[in-house]
Amino acid sequence: MLYQQCTRLGISVTFGVNIIEYIENAKDGSATAVASDGTRYTHDIVVAADGLGTKSHKAIMGEIIRAVPTGFVVCRIFYRLDPVKNAELYQKLADQPRADLRAYSGENYHCVLSTANDHVVIGITLPDDGTSSESWSEAITGDEFLKMLPDTADWDPIIIDTIRNIPQNCIVKWQLCWRDPQTKWTTEGGRIVQLGDSAHAFIPSSISGATTALEDAQSFAECLRLAGKADAHLGTKVHELLRIRRASILQRLGFANRREMHRAGGMEALLKHPDTAKSGPMGLGKWIWTHNAESYATERFAEARAHLEIGSPFEHTNLPPGFNWQDGWTMQDEVEKEKQGINTPDLKLNGYWGIY
């Protein structure tokens, strides 16, 4: 769909290119992306939207910043049931009146299962046993998968059934890696900008990684439109100002959610805790899902630009209402809370996280 839209708009797309270096050309107001075959792509603005393995940090942060393991892995699978080979489970799911999403959790794990007709999606997060890698290519068998899971005797039978019916070698065990929140996403001159996971790594329990990347795209496009070609480099800076605090909070939400779900007794135990946030375990407050990143950029662009150019006041209004901004949090801080058994929803008590 994205490729078709690019074609419709006359935007050329080149496949199979591996970008290994980003260079800002301050004197002539451009930037260059260098491919592994030596090809140089030079334009007014270069967007590094190449994920967790991006090579853009040297240009933006002044050093190579490698992603580090979080101590957990996620096992993921999507498959379609065969009406003959998987007849019993196929019939169970076919009888469902609508698509079904279930979440389960307990000490040091959580599981999300989605079923719809003949489609099955499973994601289980567990402690890393040292055998995984940051790769989509490492597959394990269904039997190996079941051995990894704790206390399966108490699990909902539908989960066990869906795992046992997984086709051979289709489960991917993926190491969850992370970079601490960055202080900036753009080069000094604003000619190179990071978007998505290259700018802000997420873990799945944030339930916000993909949507945050889409918000980035909406905001960035609108900021470029409003800045115009001559000031495109200022557009990247405005985009960064509008987005960076919101993304940081949503990154941190992944660790807050994981601590909630991975406590002894799981989410059910959390519901009994007096400090449970109004949005509940794994809850996404209204401030997250009612936000329109494009409209926000349209409405706040001039104010944000003035803040950057002349230092006029700027208040971030795409955060939880009443949120007290906290600089400098790190993954190590959040992991230490997990180790100490601090499972209260501390982040969600900062500002309003309700759904109404």
Automatic annotation (TrEMBL):
GO terms for molecular function: monooxygenase activity. It comes from the Eukaryota. Its cofactor is FAD. Keywords: Monooxygenase, Oxidoreductase. Belongs to the paxM FAD-dependent monooxygenase family. This is FAD-dependent monooxygenase mdpD. The lineage of its organism: Eukaryota, Fungi, Dikarya, Ascomycota, Pezizomycotina.
